[in-house]
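Reopening this ticket.

The earlier resolution said the output was attached, but the attachment link was broken on my side. Pasting everything inline this time so it's all in one place.
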Amino acid sequence: MGNLYVTNVTGAQISVNKLIINAENINPVAQKLSSGSTANWAYTEFTAADFDDMILRISFGNSDYMIDLNRSHFFGDNDGAYPGADYDINFVLMGFNGNEISIMMVYRTSAGGAFNYCDDVKYMQRY
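Inline output:
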């Protein structure tokens, strides 16, 4: 069974409003997440090979931020790790930069062990 995580290290409280994988919202109720905290969800619907698209929406104060990543624009350097029952994926919200929040990804097989990190940084845009 795979797990999905969102870890907040922005220094501020945020709210995870939606986490949509392959058109399924696995976070139907917004979750407040203080800095240094992690939210997690079990994900067993598909394997990494079936991954098509991910949307993450969060809010901070009066602003909303979103990232929409499909398979061809996902985190690079990921050894084929995509959200699915065969991987644990942690999206780490790193900090604010004007109208953006930087986000990185760490991953491991769902069998456990240490997380590997991707060198790629993506940016959640304020909308």
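Reporter confirms the inline version is readable. The first strand starts at residue 2 and ends at 8. The mean pLDDT is 96.
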